[in-house]
């Protein structure tokens, strides 16, 4: 940590005093965010801006704001894998911007790259005009791409994964002359009108009426909670894909694209089986459909390899990238095979597709991930995390399944007293949310997702260390033990 300029949390307290989070509950916020009131003690030393997020600003925010509903804290600083709040609480950050912070908070390489860009006087927003920092980012990214895409083309999109997904579908439609898309149940591709149509979760799109037309969903081969029951689900799912793409009686017109995540993240941390990936690649190639791999969350080392598509042999035509490639700043691109480059100039554009700071931070992050061997490190520490979670869960039947590659791990919490026809326990979202809150009170921030939000998700920065992994494991075990086996109904006090 030497050489990092400390960021002041409050007068007289710097980040250097917060290198390790506490594991006790002391100092961790657990109050309802809506109950926070503004008083003079919340104001800065000059009586001006409050240190806490107050009731008034929160009333001004949309009800669509979501994370504070489950994580009622106000963050003030971050360093490495640790963040701190305005009340002195410290937390190991296993949310990490939904996986965007591969190098954690304020990594020296990223901070130095941003400062150097600012000090150089480089223009900060340049649309798609050429700049040295843009060229450096492109060269850095292409140096680590899968070999099948190393001679491809890159398109800078609006700075979100959703816009990059939209661009990938537009490209597929442009170069094939077709319009339909096949996606998968459990998939998550964004919250725009177009990407919601591709996303699996019905509750997110049912209130909105018509979305992108001609989108068809097929089952994803989920091993634990399979739509096919306890069977060879990867084989059956692959057969369905082949049937949908090649059988004239499938009812699905030949699509422009098939889009899939090599690991479904928001859907519950389900890795794509290699046999299914092989079938998907062969079937799309045979049908003349563009295969799009959404690696917005998996890309750049998180799953134990630079690209989650590689070890399973998915070999996509289009790679959708965001989150980690921006070094924590907004950036999104698609990289596609050169023969698909059928765009007309300006066919996909966006005001903020030329952010110099994002490109500088992204290039620095790519260099550091490669230099530090962080993909291999993610694989090793991910195994330590998964093994530890299994050990502390022990014979607690509420921990139904622990899965996920590298540092993209999920624990599905279940109700052992309720099971489906195949004997698989029902997902227990209330238990997962109670464990999430109890872990926060023990100094660890986690996400939830999957069916009924019953999967506790771990997405720590790739620079997290062994001691912090063990603290995360201990916090999960203690949180699970703290939650009663039979949870009270809603509106009851969350366990601490």
Automatic annotation (TrEMBL):
Pathway(s) where this gene product acts: Amine and polyamine biosynthesis; ectoine biosynthesis; L-ectoine from L-aspartate 4-semialdehyde: step 1/3
Keywords per UniProt: Aminotransferase, Pyridoxal phosphate, Transferase
Pfam families recorded: Aminotran_3 (PF00202)
InterPro entries in the record: Aminotrans_3, Aminotrans_3_PPA_site, Dat, PyrdxlP-dep_Trfase, PyrdxlP-dep_Trfase_major, PyrdxlP-dep_Trfase_small
Database matches in Gene3D superfamilies: Aspartate Aminotransferase, domain 1 (3.90.1150.10), Type I PLP-dependent aspartate aminotransferase-like (Major domain) (3.40.640.10)
Ranges of Basic and acidic residues composition bias in the record: 16-25
E.C. number(s) listed in UniProt: 2.6.1.76
Residue stretches in coiled coil: none
Record keyword Transferase present: yes
GO molecular function: diaminobutyrate-2-oxoglutarate transaminase activity; pyridoxal phosphate binding
Group of enzyme by EC: transferase
Spans annotated as Disordered: 1-67
Cofactor: pyridoxal 5'-phosphate
Family per record: Belongs to the class-III pyridoxal-phosphate-dependent aminotransferase family.
Name this protein carries in UniProt: Diaminobutyrate--2-oxoglutarate transaminase
Protein's organism: Phytoactinopolyspora mesophila
């Amino acid at each position: 940590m030497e050489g990092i300029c400390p960021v002041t949390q409050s007068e007289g307290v710097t980040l250097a005093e917060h290198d390790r989070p506490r594991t006790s509950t002391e100092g961790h916020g657990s109050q309802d965010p809506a109950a926070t009131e503004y008083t003079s003690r919340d104001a800065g030393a000059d009586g001006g801006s409050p240190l806490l997020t107050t009731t008034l600003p929160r009333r001004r925010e949309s009800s669509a704001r979501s994370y504070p509903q489950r994580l009622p804290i106000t963050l003030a600083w971050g360093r490495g894998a640790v963040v701190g709040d305005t009340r002195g609480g410290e937390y190991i950050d296993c949310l990490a911007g939904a996986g965007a912070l591969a190098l954690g908070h304020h990594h020296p390489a990223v901070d130095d790259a941003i400062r150097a860009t600012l000090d150089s006087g480089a223009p900060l927003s340049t649309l798609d005009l050429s700049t040295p920092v843009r060229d450096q980012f492109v060269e850095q990214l292409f140096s680590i791409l899968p070999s099948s895409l190393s001679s491809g083309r890159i398109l800078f999109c609006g700075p979100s994964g959703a816009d990059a997904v939209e661009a990938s579908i537009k490209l597929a439609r442009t170069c094939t002359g077709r319009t339909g898309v096949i996606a998968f149940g459990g998939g998550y591709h964004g919250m725009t009108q177009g990407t919601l149509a591709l996303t699996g979760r019905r509750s997110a799109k049912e209130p909105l009426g018509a979305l992108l037309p001609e989108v068809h969903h097929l089952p994803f081969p989920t091993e634990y909670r399979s739509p096919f029951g306890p069977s060879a689900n990867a084989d059956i799912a692959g057969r369905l894909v082949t049937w949908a793409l090649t059988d004239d009686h499938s009812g699905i017109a030949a699509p422009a694209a098939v889009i899939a995540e090599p690991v479904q993240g928001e859907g519950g941390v389900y890795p794509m089986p290699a046999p299914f990936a092989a079938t998907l690649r062969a079937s799309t190639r045979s049908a003349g459909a563009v295969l799009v791999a959404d690696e917005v969350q998996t890309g750049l080392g998180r799953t134990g390899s630079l690209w989650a598509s590689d070890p399973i042999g998915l070999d996509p035509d289009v790679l959708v990238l965001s989150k980690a490639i921006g070094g924590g700043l907004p950036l999104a691109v698609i990289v596609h095979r050169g023969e698909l480059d059928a765009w007309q100039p300006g066919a996909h554009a966006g005001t903020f597709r030329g952010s110099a700071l994002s490109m500088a931070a992204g290039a620095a992050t790519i260099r550091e991930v490669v230099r530090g061997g962080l993909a291999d490190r993610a694989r090793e520490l991910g195994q330590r995390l998964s093994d530890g979670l299994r050990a502390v869960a022990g014979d607690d039947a509420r921990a139904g399944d622990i899965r996920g590659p590298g540092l993209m791990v999920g624990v599905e919490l279940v109700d052992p007293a309720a099971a489906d026809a195949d004997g698989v326990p029902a997902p227990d979202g209330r238990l997962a949310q109670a464990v999430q809150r109890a872990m926060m009170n023990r100094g660890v921030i986690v996400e939830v997702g999957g069916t009924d939000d019953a999967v506790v998700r771990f997405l720590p920065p790739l620079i997290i260390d062994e001691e912090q992994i063990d603290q995360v494991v201990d916090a999960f075990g203690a949180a699970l033990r703290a939650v009663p086996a039979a949870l009270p109904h809603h509106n009851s006090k969350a366990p601490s």
